[in-house]
Design brief:
Blueprint: H1 28-42, E1 44-46, E2 51-53, H2 55-58, H3 69-82, E3 99-107, E4 112-120, E5 128-137, E6 140-147, H4 154-168, H5 184-196, E7 214-222, E8 226-235, E9 238-251, E10 253-260, H6 265-286, H7 307-318, E11 337-344, E12 350-362, E13 365-378, E14 384-391
Antiparallel strand pairs: 1-2, 3-4, 4-5, 5-6, 7-8, 8-9, 9-10, 11-12, 12-13, 13-14
Length: about 400
């Protein structure tokens, strides 16, 4: 099993925590690491007894000193009320992950902290993220709550805002107020657009007249202080989602700064390249040998790449020939992320996009390096696709 790692980064967040009894751990990281380390090792198949162990089913979690008595009582109550569990309240998932890592710790007060946890499943490089609330009493820390809907990362902020918004729309509650997780400027623009909207006009937040059944969020680019998310709105009876671009900025916390009712070619380019970096880094850290793009079935690469380019890349990756640089990335080293900018040509259905990689250049600083120029073209349904790559070096 890929073992857990701990990296501490301070972020801003506000959570209300309950008071819990003393625990044996003396810091927020230690208590979370101890409990989830035990939980993942305990759950699953036991070769000694040849039985499957489930801490929720056998109640063994109730004996853990890392948990507050109040949290244990609440988990017991969930089982009694539901006759079981729809999902694991500690893992915020139905399945047991292969690994977890603590990535952010926010000391809220001397006795309260919020710990951001990632958990990974199978060969999927996209983790489930949730927040563990930790409280100290008499110098000892315990887990007081597990919050499955995090609002710390750009993806979490976007999901939290849109789930909140979908709850408000049917009755119109709170729609004339300032919205949470939006910058002051975007709030003002949305309120102005709502006041000027004609009957039957599109909603400026949803970019549509109808209300979607649900939404999902895919990260496109996450940099130091800016991020881009792809919002997919799903409607009943329509398998094709409506896609909206969400842009965020970071100033003490992530906030949505712009909602764009279309997907630009540079957004598709950033999505493809940052997905590529995510998969490559995940495989390299775990020693997983997969053919780039071909074996990454979790992500539908063919949706945004031309057939000839995709076939050429796969032939190159499957060959044994020496490659001085990655043919897709146009570099030997993985950047932390990439950004893209369009250089529009004379044709409306074709555009050149420049892709630049951000590489660490010092403490909390990054240098941008031009990697490639891409030719983007529209498909039959109007979707932008990558059809050619010219490496900058």
């Amino acid at each position: 099993m890929y073992r857990k790692s701990v990296t501490l980064l301070l972020v801003a967040m506000a959570l209300a925590l309950g008071i819990a009894p003393a625990a044996a751990q003396d810091d927020p990281t230690g208590v979370v690491d101890s409990f989830y380390g035990w939980y993942l090792d305990y759950a699953g198949y036991d070769e000694t007894t040849e039985e499957f162990r489930n801490p929720l089913a056998d109640g063994s979690y109730q004996e853990r000193e890392e948990l507050s008595a109040d949290l244990i009582d609440r988990v017991v109550a969930i089982r009694e009320e539901q006759g079981g569990f729809f999902h694991d309240p500690f893992l915020c998932a139905q399945d047991v992950p292969e690994s977890f890592e603590i990535v952010q710790v926010d000391p809220l007060t001397e006795r309260d902290a919020a710990v951001l946890v990632r958990e990974y499943f199978g060969f999927n490089p996209h983790p489930k993220v949730f927040v563990v609330s930790v409280h100290a009493q008499d110098g000892a820390w315990q887990i007081a709550d597990v919050i499955c809907q995090e609002s710390v990362t750009p993806r979490g902020v976007t999901e939290t805002f849109y789930n909140w918004y979908l709850e408000q729309v049917p009755g119109g509650d709170a729609l004339d107020e300032s919205y949470p997780f939006l910058t002051t400027d975007l709030n003002a623009r949305i309120q102005a657009a709502r006041s000027q909207r004609e009957p039957g006009g599109g909603d400026p937040v949803l970019c549509a007249q109808d209300i979607p059944n649900y939404v999902s969020v895919n990260p496109v680019m996450v940099g130091q202080d800016t991020a881009t998310m792809l919002l997919r709105e799903m409607y009943a009876g329509n398998p094709t989602p409506r896609m909206v671009t969400i842009r965020l900025v970071h100033d003490q916390q992530w906030m949505i700064d712009d909602i764009v009712c279309e997907i630009a070619p540079e957004t598709i380019a950033e999505l493809l390249y940052n997905e590529y970096i995510t998969f490559m880094r995940y495989d390299m850290e775990r020693g997983i040998e997969r053919t780039p793009i071909a074996d990454w079935s979790i992500w539908p690469w063919a949706e945004h790449m031309g057939e000839d380019l995709l076939a050429s890349l796969l032939d190159t990756y499957r060959s044994d020939e020496f490659r001085p640089a990655d043919p897709f990335l146009c570099a030997q080293d993985l950047p932390s992320w990439v950004s893209a900018a369009p250089i529009y040509g004379p044709e409306s259905d074709s555009v050149t996009v420049e892709v630049s990689g951000a590489y660490p250049s010092g403490a909390d600083s990054f240098a941008s390096t031009l990697l490639a120029r891409l030719k983007m073209a529209t498909s039959a349904d109007g979707t932008w696709m990558l059809v050619d790559i010219t490496c900058a070096r």
